[in-house]
Amino acid sequence: MQTSDTLDNTPSMSDPSIIIDVQNIKKKYNGHTAVSGISLAIAQGSCFGLLGPNGAGKTTTVEMMENIIDQDSGKIFYKGGPRNKTFNQEVGIQFQHTELLAFLTVEETLKTFAAFYDTPLPVEDMIALCMLENIKTSLNNKISGGQRQRLLLSLALLNDPDLIFLDEPSTGLDPQARKHIWEIIRDMNQKGKTIILTTHYMEEAETLCDTVAIMDKGRIIAQGSPQSLIDTHCQDMDGPWNLESVFLKLTGKRLRD
Amino acid sequence: MNFKRMWALFVARNFEFIRDRAGFGWNILFPFLIVAGFGVMFSSDSRSEFKVGVFPVVPDQMVVTDLEIPERLKTYDYIKIVPFETYDAAVDKLLHHKIDMLLKNSGPKLHYWINASSPKGAVLEKVVKESVISEDMFAERMVKQQVKGKQIRYIDWLFPGILGMNIMFSSLFGVGYVIVRYRRSGVLKRLKATPVTAFEYLTAQLASRVWIMLCTSFLVWFGCDLLFDFQMEGSYLDAAVIFLAGTLCLVSLGLILACRGTNEELTNGIINFICWPMMFLSEVWFSLEGASEWVKSIARVLPLTHFLSAVRKIVNDGATLADVSSELAILLVMSVVFLTIGSLLFSWTK
Hints:
The complex is a heterodimer of chains A (257) and B (350). Chain A has 257 residues and is an alpha/beta fold. Chain A contains nine helices and nine strands. Chain A has helices at residues 58-65, 85-90, 106-114, 123-129, 145-157, 175-190, 202-208, 226-233, 243-251; strands at residues 18-29, 32-43, 47-51, 73-78, 91-94, 163-167, 194-198, 211-216, 219-224. In chain A, strand 1 and strand 2 (32-43) form a beta hairpin. Chain A is globular, with a radius of gyration of 18 Å. Chain B has 350 residues and is mostly helical. Chain B has 13 helices and four strands. Chain B is elongated, with a radius of gyration of 26 Å. The two termini of chain B are 23 Å apart. The A-B interface holds A 66, 68-69, 85, 88-89, 91, 93, 95, 97-104, 108, 111-113, 115-118, 139, 155 and B 4-5, 7-9, 11-12, 15-16, 19-20, 185-187, 189-190, 192-196, 348-349.
């Protein structure tokens, strides 16, 4: 990953290893600044974690990168150019809060979404990958929260994406289901997929991500590999040191909304 | 534009509708119940338009022919005689418009009461006066003529209105309300993250709802026809074309309501604000013949008015598509305008 503080409003054309290049993006909602000038250059094949307390601007940042919402200013380039029609064919997204069509079965949902893409993976493979065999004939409104998370992950992976956005993919899951999701994410990353992950679980970020950025009040306040952040910020603290120590030191212990 | 994506969305929406048993059942049952209810209400022995109270009469022992009221009044088809034991009980009903006139059951001189604010009472007063005058007095000055042509039952006139009303409710709530709910719950946001375009999504929603409404209207028509044996003067194919155009127009109107917003309560209010005036001004239940010109002007801008006008001309009068070409053209133009506005304003998330 590279970061850029000096902006020239041109994509990182010289570096084909950069899959998504974010340049000084800003976003306000009703006068409140959600994101105030973030720049990131995320390398192809990396697993990038975006951490931050509630209201830090993580989801807004990621949704601007996903092209779901427009930034007020700044630019975002994908594979060295503007995001065009192929962007949605090559990107997989799992949102934090998503409902699905209530009266479709799990298998029908996958088949419906598969029809949206030019070259989807076989639905049977996704069912097997995300362990949905037992619920494939169940209606979406009858499956549990954990099963729903697995279905949403399978939808994000269905188009064999180059870039995968996962917004708190393991929130609300039991430890077994979380480990299973981690295995899938790690497997995708090993296959060369780029993953952008937001999470509240520091252990998750430390285990999966090769690079993390910590956000607070709409800005990135620290970034680097988990170990480099621990080394940089925990020298004057009592052990044991981990990413959570870094997070609490940088964002404080005050309760957030 | 990608037909594979549109077909997938079309099929998915159809599954959603059919598997939602409560919603699906209500869409069939609602118009059927209304038509059946009106069928019973307007059957031959329930057609009284005026209610005349008579006292003192013991209700269980009333024999109409024994009442001491004008003989001719007892024979009128559209007057129902309602017995009361006392004056107090009867006049209370008159004051509350539950009966239209009150007669005293005694003596050669007829005593009667009406509610001064009741138009029906005023008309009945004339009828009662006429009933005590010999018919010979009219013979010189009045000649009754027979109406030529086929006379239409009220139920035959009403039935297209009920179907149109059902299509209106289903189009506005089934498209407008549902899409706003999908937007609030994040379903649309998830679709935005795929290659599906707004045009593909809206077209699939439109096609699905039109298809569903045509199928349910056919089922309701078939079921009601078995019960009431509707008179169909025109061509079923012509009627189907008008139903297609009318449904297309109303669903397109629903898409305008669905193009923005995440507040279901507000959408519900707006849809009701549109539906109720349209129901009354588009002649679903009664004709606007004789209404003020400004009321008719408002009615003319409502799509349901043109839809029902065309359907009734075909069903009741045997008109052809050429005869209703102006209504058809208006419906198609409105559809294009509504669709264009809906597509331009559509947002997946806001």
